[in-house]
């Protein structure tokens, strides 16, 4: 009796310990999820306005131009003549005199003198004279009188106005865009130029690329830009003179290719230089080739980015490059994105994410700025660190910015930062890190907004750009420039084939390029006037048509902000898994309508909590989407009602109407999806039949509109359909929730009946029907495993069969229900591990009876299934995961009990074997079996690849965004080391070894006297 009491006390203590451990695990899970939100400070731009358009003023013919004969002024005069030639009409004649400049420099102030018939430009520098001519050309394109420019014009507020490379060198091949599944960030610029073998350069393609580049430079100069970020670095360097070098062995093609490429592109950089355009080589760090990586690893033991000597290799490469090509002005460095997403197959130039610590960044910048100062160049460092390593929040966290950059005050250093507190999304606050620091700063803007369908929808950012620029300039006197992305950002071939100055309706996002350039020169620019000037330049000079276009554009931001975003969620600053998900999320990077539970459930919870009145937050969010649809319909009516004959070309009008049709079709589909996912969340949250009925109605509407969207736009390169795969998988899973809930209820009733049968029969003798005997034995063995041997001894064959089949069948079906019968991967891993555990135990027991451990473990499995089935019975797997993501208290309680029962299954199994083989050996058996159950799946996952395994599992479970693995990689995004399965396998091997040692019979040595 005393022994039984001690065992009972020991069991209670063990249970309490396991529950305490379960609480710890649950709290750790909650902490790891870190799901929380807080209101985000919104930008406060002035409302967009659409003043009446004035009558167009035809330009005069300029029959005489007297100007200094320089390349820069000559190209500017070419633009002036082109503007006059492009005007629908001309009236009168005029002359232009550009007085000789008296000095060089960057001051671009000037004075325009004379009258409408005789114009004179007076400037101190060539930069001022050139600007004056470009301003005259812009005035003509805006259909405004040239005389309005008479007077003094102050120097541009910001002297550095840089662009990306646009679509220079990019081949518009529709076959590469049609699939819509290439999420590579590689532009493949100059792909036609590069040859695999000597001479490495196709001269015909190079000549075409040079002409392409010259056109881009001329266009950018006309828009007010004077610098360009040119991709590449390692491709142009031989690394002959690096310390400990050379890097490349004699005859290595990397060296020969570098020389060929340098010779090929030096004329590009020289052309930019003679036009007054600075060139910065744009590269990720670490930039590598195969031999370069081998060289660094051999010399330093690893890619040790905290070692100053490693950076001497790169600075020596820059010294070499600047000596060979003096027209380069510096280097632009990014550390936050790299890897295969930017790589090109068969091209041995790549980058890795290795600059991830404060010390590494500071060491790198110290080396690069020293080299820049000595060579008379500049280093532009991007703070875009995107969650990588200890510097991961440098882009958005003022404290991290200071930790990384405080004290690095080289005059050669320029720090570049996006104007939004995150990526180029709407609803994000202004990036406050731009208001701090002693370094020279430039601000990044994006014209072709990648997350807002790559500029395929009208999207006038004028008032937001202006507010941001004015706020930042008032806060930080060190801001001296902008970097405007005219084309780049995101995947190149997973969106519309709109290539800047080449294909598609690129004129639509050209507006934002013009706005950013004008605001950089004068932050007080009339942004509505810029929109009107843009409309006159590209679309129409008819006042009524310009009015209609301008009115439509003033509404474009509202349509984007409320149609592509769910505002109640987007207004929040959300944290999850140690990261800050962006304000869109339901459309995941960049065109994937997501269907995963993590995003959609959290999104619903935030929308729900946005209004204290029950259901009102959901209703308002749905109404918000409908209003965005109405806004686009109004925009379309404004443009469609214009007289086609007033447009510069029928194609332009057709493109604009087509863009609005595309937006209207997309937002209608998104509106139905928004209503569907919110009502789905509401059903899981409240279990209200009305919410479920609304979800069913919304689902039918979404499926209809989705089919129409795909039928109309799938495969279209200029107006591609959204990727609906993830959303459709989500609908498929949601469709099964109610059925799965009913299956779970039936199984729960059966499992509870089995459990009650065992409890009721506990005080009876071991006689009766086999079912009752088996249920009784299982309950006793699960709760009092030390009695497992006695309760299973002499059990009839049918009873033993039930001991094995009941928990096995219940486990299989429960897990199948939990996955909606859609995840064979989940079932294979879970059931495979249990089967391995059972087989190992059976082999170790050998001739001993396995039924005590079968009864003990099987009984706990039944209890564990009952817990899961109860959670599933409310509203199916969707409701199970809804509670996991959004309800901390139920999640904590569930994990606590589930973990305790899981571990208790092995404790009970070992305890049940104690009567047969003793406590030590029983512990060894369990450890060995658990180790094998973990080792084999770990080895399989390791062999397959963790990323691949997680992708397959997540595709079937729908927990994390489907696009995560296709774009960023689940392991990369969540920071899971690739070696994790091997580490788990190593731990499992230790368990197996320890288990075998404990399981072996230990014979005590026989004493000599005993012999």
From TrEMBL:
Q: Which organism is it from?
A: Microbacterium mangrovi
Q: What is this protein called?
A: Glycosyl hydrolase family 67 C-terminal domain-containing protein
Transmembrane segment boundaries = 742-762, 797-817, 823-845, 852-872, 892-913, 925-946, 982-1002
Keyword list, A-Z: Membrane, Transmembrane, Transmembrane helix
The source's superkingdom equals Bacteria
